[in-house]
């Protein structure tokens, strides 16, 4: 029987290349995922992670009996950027590329008793490995930064399952391609489909017909379709038997859904035209680089779907974590996943690595119902018809159910893909020359914006996103637009601001909102969440010429009332005149000079009330004093697992009396932690921008953790977490 277990515990790490027999005292104990170096949240020097390190794990193994000749594999989800794998002193495998998973057969090197696996991890930005070869506008960091699993299987086992759900409207069918590692007589397959509650939906038994056997259901019981609003998932369990004896079982989740970009320019999900509205996502974080555990990976999907109201995300510019994609499946967030790279295509060996990553990505991820498009072109690279003919052919061979796209930043490109995917930085929309047409980036470097920038820039940044989405939603020839980008990110010295951060996000590097995020939030149905956010610091001297006129408000209410002090200025409606195609246009409210401090000889608090169908449903207050009144401290969850890797974000803010962050209130915030956990990040933290975050990382002991924060002139505050025993599960469930 197949067994698969997390292999993340009890590793050793040395920030240098050590011999295979190096003594233990040269290593430090670590738990995966792991970054080869921790960094401050800004001013990251990419030279600092470019070294060869050594990872080692000692573990005990009992050899199976002769009548149980199992195969044993180590499955690596991601190692940056290249590595060599040794077991008990013998070299077994070299892997090039940091974003694709790979497996190593360690069967023949295992021995009874203690065993030792060692990796030499090369995190240098090697020009022979994608994405490098030229300049790259993001950092790759280093280390064994994703999960590792130990997998034990029968010598004859299932390699891969490919689930296809054609014609879901009106009569869903199901096809499953089962690929075996070897053939043998007397083999049969049994497939069972279960719903989310574990109840059996349908079964099928069939003899093995070849190394790849297709199972088909022409008729099915009633099934629920997977959609962005009702992301219903099913589980397929396929068992392999030899003359009735069970050899292997492999499971995968899937959804019944049909996704297609059509020549009319639109995207259709289950025959329904859906305008795509989304953002790009880099997988990197402050402090920990890319070494984020499952909880943080899943949370990014939640932020995109629930906080930013996106229905699509592009995995710029590489395959991303299985935990992130799993969560996209669960919540109904569409995904455009693409190959590794940025503007540069290397030589034949470089291209071979890229093709291998493309094949691995598709085989790993093609059962995810959330994925609607394969990106088969290196982002913003020039035409290379020979190479991109190969990538398109490979993608269509491996997955004929999905279309291909190839992101370029110019019009007139060779159109070898199925969807013309285009980075449009014209600050408008260039008329599509090819269809289907999807805008895959806009804004971004055209308008970098910091949380503490002056008010006009923050507003213009938000309104640029509003303007482009209004234009794309009004053009039936365009399937949608994916803005650049969701979160600020660390970059190379050739890009970004003076602290080596690209401030392109609608949220900052901590996943905390700028006003552009409020625009995205405001486009959701108010039945799901009501949004009311004034885009103002409510000061008299923050804009050119002073004052607060006009006032921009992002809301999905149908009216907003403005009250200044005791003066009711009036009720206002959304600005449909300038944004006729948005579900919920911004409010643009003029004529406020008469109610300002200059007009009234006193500066009063601002009070907003949002109305739906004539009834008040939301309000916001902004203090006129703008003085620091509170130090806030919150954690995204009150529970962590004691697995040495689980972590949560710890948000801290300096606010006015109404809990609005104060971007100009500079404070040094100091933290103290009690309990079995560690703080990840700068401590003390010189706060600029009114809000930031650290991470709390669990150790290996259950218990209670308390974190206290203090800042001069403000009352101390604290938050507590419960550290739960780590469940011994392949995929952890989250409270």
Q: Concise description?
A:
The chain is mainly beta.
Quaternary structure type: single chain
The count of β-strands is 46
Largest sheet: 8 strands, parallel
* Cα end-to-end separation: 30 Å
Low-confidence stretches: 730-735
Question: Which geometry do the CA atoms define?
Answer: globular
Cα-atom radius of gyration: 27 Å
What is the fold named in CATH at topology level of the largest domain? TIM Barrel
Average residue pLDDT: 94
Structural class, judged by helices and strands?
Answer: mainly beta
Topology (SSEs and partners):
Blueprint: E1 3-6, E2 11-14, E3 28-30, E4 52-61, E5 71-76, E6 82-87, E7 90-96, E8 102-105, E9 113-122, E10 148-153, E11 158-164, E12 174-180, E13 187-194, E14 200-207, E15 212-217, E16 234-242, E17 245-254, E18 259-261, E19 267-269, E20 272-273, E21 276-280, H1 294-307, E22 312-315, H2 322-331, E23 334-338, H3 348-365, E24 371-375, H4 385-398, E25 403-405, E26 420-423, E27 437-441, H5 455-473, E28 480-483, E29 489-490, E30 501-502, H6 515-522, E31 532-534, E32 551-555, E33 559-564, E34 567-572, E35 587-589, H7 597-600, E36 606-612, E37 615-622, E38 630-635, E39 639-641, E40 647-655, E41 667-674, E42 677-680, E43 685-687, E44 691-698, E45 703-711, E46 714-724
């Amino acid at each position: 029987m197949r067994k698969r277990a997390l292999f993340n515990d009890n590793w050793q790490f040395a920030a240098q290349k050590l011999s295979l027999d190096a003594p233990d005292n040269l290593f430090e104990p670590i738990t995966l995922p792991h970054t080869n170096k921790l960094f401050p949240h800004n001013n990251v020097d990419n030279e600092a992670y470019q070294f060869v390190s050594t990872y080692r794990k000692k573990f005990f193994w009992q050899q199976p009996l002769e009548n149980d000749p199992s195969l044993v594999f180590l499955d690596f989800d991601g190692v940056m950027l290249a590595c060599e794998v040794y077991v008990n002193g013998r070299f077994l495998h070299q892997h090039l590329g940091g974003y694709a998973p790979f497996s190593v057969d360690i069967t023949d090197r295992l021995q009874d008793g203690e065993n030792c696996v060692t990796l030499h991890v090369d995190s240098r930005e090697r020009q022979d490995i994608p994405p490098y070869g030229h300049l790259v506008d993001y950092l790759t960091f280093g280390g064994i930064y994703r999960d590792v699993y130990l997998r034990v299987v029968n010598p004859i086992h299932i390699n891969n399952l490919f689930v296809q759900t054609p014609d879901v409207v009106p009569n869903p069918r199901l096809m499953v391609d089962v690929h075996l590692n070897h053939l043998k007589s007397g083999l049969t397959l049994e497939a069972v489909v279960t719903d989310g509650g574990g109840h059996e939906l349908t079964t099928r038994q069939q003899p093995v017909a070849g190394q790849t056997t297709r199972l088909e259901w022409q008729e099915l019981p009633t099934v629920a379709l997977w959609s962005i609003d009702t992301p219903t998932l099913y589980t397929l369990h396929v068992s392999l038997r030899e003359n009735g004896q069970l050899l292997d079982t492999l499971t995968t989740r899937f959804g019944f859904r049909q996704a297609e970009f059509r020549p009319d320019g639109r995207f259709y999900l289950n025959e329904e035209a859906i305008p795509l509205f989304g953002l790009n996502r880099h997988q990197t974080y402050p402090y920990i680089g890319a070494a984020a555990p499952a909880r943080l990976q899943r949370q990014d999907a939640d932020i995109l779907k629930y906080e930013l109201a996106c229905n699509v995300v592009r995995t710029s510019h590489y395959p991303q974590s299985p935990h992130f994609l799993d969560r996209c499946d669960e919540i109904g967030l569409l995904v455009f996943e693409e190959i590794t790279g940025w503007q540069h295509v290397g030589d034949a060996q470089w291209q071979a690595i890229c093709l291998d990553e493309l094949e691995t990505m598709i085989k790993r991820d093609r059962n995810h119902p959330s994925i609607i498009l394969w990106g088969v072109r290196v982002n913003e690279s020039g035409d290379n018809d020979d190479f991109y003919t190969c990538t398109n052919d490979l993608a269509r061979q491996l997955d004929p159910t999905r279309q291909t796209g190839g992101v370029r930043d110019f019009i007139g490109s060779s159109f070898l893909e199925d969807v013309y995917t285009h980075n449009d930085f014209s600050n408008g929309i260039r008329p599509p020359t090819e269809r289907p047409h999807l805008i895959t980036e806009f804004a971004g470097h055209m308008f970098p914006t910091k949380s503490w920038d002056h008010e006009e820039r923050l507003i213009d940044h938000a309104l640029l996103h509003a303007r482009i989405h209004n234009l794309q939603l009004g053009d039936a020839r365009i399937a949608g637009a994916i803005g650049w980008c969701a979160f600020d990110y660390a970059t190379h010295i050739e890009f970004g601001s003076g602290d080596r951060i690209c401030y392109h996000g609608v949220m900052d590097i901590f996943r905390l909102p700028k006003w552009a995020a409020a625009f995205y939030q405001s486009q959701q149905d108010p039945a799901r969440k009501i949004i009311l956010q004034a885009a103002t610091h409510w000061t008299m001297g923050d804009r050119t010429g002073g004052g607060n006129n006009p006032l921009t408000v992002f809301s999905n209410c149908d009216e907003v009332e403005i009250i200044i002090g005791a003066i009711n200025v009036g009720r206002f409606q959304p600005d449909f005149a300038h944004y006729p195609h948005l579900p919920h246009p911004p409010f643009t409210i003029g004529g406020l000079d008469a109610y300002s401090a200059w007009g009234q000889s006193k500066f009063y608090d601002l009070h907003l009330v949002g109305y739906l169908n004539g009834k008040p449903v939301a309000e916001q207050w902004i203090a006129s004093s703008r003085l620091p009144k509170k130090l806030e401290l919150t954690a995204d969850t009150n529970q962590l697992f004691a697995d040495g890797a689980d972590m949560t974000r710890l948000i801290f803010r300096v606010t006015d009396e109404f809990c609005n962050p104060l971007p100009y209130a500079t404070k040094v915030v100091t933290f103290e932690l009690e309990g079995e956990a560690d703080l990840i990040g700068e401590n003390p933290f010189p706060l600029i921008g009114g809000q930031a975050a650290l991470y709390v990382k669990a150790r290996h002991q259950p218990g209670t953790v308390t974190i206290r924060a203090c800042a001069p002139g403000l009352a101390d505050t604290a938050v507590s977490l419960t550290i739960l025993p780590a469940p011994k599960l392949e995929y952890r469930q989250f409270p």
